[in-house]
Specification:
Layout lengths: L11 E8 L10 H18 L1 E8 L3 E8 L4 H20 L11 E5 L1 H13 L1 H4 L14 H4 L12 H4 L6 H13 L18 E2 L2 H12 L8 H9 L3 H11 L4 H16 L3 H8 L3 H17 L1 H14 L7
Parallel strand pairs: 4-5
Antiparallel strand pairs: 1-3, 1-4, 2-3
Length: about 325
């Protein structure tokens, strides 16, 4: 099996999860969880990790972490390695504690930080452990809403800053933001994840691909690279555009074809078959529409709205 694709750079945000081997508990006592939090703290001190949110369930944990130095692998070796040593020594056991390597999704923070923090904080509610997220003491939620003293190493300002400049008001708005999702059919923020590696807008995906993945076609992470390079599926693109253009079938088809040609990574033959066109006609129609977009301000706005929709309809893996 190919190793996970890791993209690391200063200022990167990741949603990180790690599960117990064979789904077994990794936290069996209050002391265990306190010790794990201690390793999160030392990760911020030694490796400049910035921990935005956390949630420690019984057999897994969630983190939203930012890497000031572009060193996620180093940070996670410290956290998981130190905790495994502690856990094994305490219980006189040997071997793996965690199930394989941790899972890390590189995230476009401005698009997803709020949603991911809510998703992380609602884990105990979804699991039926508590009715309200603040009732679960092993997550960062209570620190966000001012129900308990914030740990010095926990960074809450970034996410709260999306809600209000005044901290007290931001905490109340954040609490309501989380509460509003309880009891409703919660949409997973990970539906747009590409190759289990990237979560962000089409522009973010293009930027990361261009900076960090070009020229790596011979890397042994080929399956992940192919998935990333392929982009959103044709069906997903058409669905996104259908939410923007409801009553003009011809315009919907033209824009869908144009954005499929631009973003999907599909072959002309595949796009042509979907729209019942010949290969050459696909590229010609795409060029004509691009020319039209360049001259029409209203159409450019419509295309931008469609591109924003693609953020929610990227390939799920």
């Amino acid at each position: 099996m190919a190793r996970p694709l890791r993209i690391e750079y200063p200022g990167a945000f990741y949603h990180v999860t790690s599960r117990g081997n064979e789904q077994k508990a990794i936290f069996k006592s209050k002391k265990d969880r306190e010790q794990f939090l201690h390793y999160l703290e030392t990760a911020t001190e030694r490796y400049a990790a910035i921990i935005h949110t956390y949630c420690l369930m019984d057999n897994h944990y969630h983190l939203l972490v930012e890497t000031a130095k572009g060193n996620l692998s180093q940070i996670m070796r410290h956290i998981n390695g130190a905790y495994t040593t502690y856990f094994n020594v305490k219980r006189k056991r040997a071997g793996h504690l965690f199930q394989g390597r941790y899972k890390a999704i590189l995230v476009e923070a401005d698009e997803y930080a709020k949603e991911l923090s809510r998703y992380i904080h609602l884990n105990p509610v979804r699991a039926g452990i508590v009715d309200k997220p603040e009732e679960f003491i092993w997550s960062s939620h209570s620190s966000y809403i001012g129900k308990k003293r914030k740990l010095e190493w926990l960074q809450t300002d970034f996410i709260l800053g999306y809600f209000d400049k005044k901290v007290s008001s931001a905490k109340k708005k954040y609490q309501q933001f989380v509460v509003d999702s309880i009891g409703s059919e919660e949409k997973s923020p990970f539906e747009g994840t590409i190759a289990s590696t990237l979560l962000g807008s089409p522009g973010f995906i293009r930027e990361i691909t261009g900076k960090f993945l070009e020229g790596k076609e011979k890397d042994r992470n080929i399956p992940a690279l192919r998935e990333i390079n392929r982009g959103p599926a044709i069906e997903r693109i058409f669905k996104a555009i259908s939410q923007v253009i409801c009553d003009d079938a011809e315009m919907r088809k033209k824009m869908s074809l144009y954005l499929c040609h631009r973003y999907s990574g599909a072959k002309l033959k595949e796009i042509g078959e979907y729209f019942d066109m010949k290969d050459a006609a696909v590229s010609q129609a795409s060029r004509r529409f691009a020319h039209q977009v360049g001259k029409d301000k209203a159409l450019r706005k419509m295309v931008k709205r469609a591109e924003e929709k693609l953020t929610m309809f990227n390939v799920e893996t």
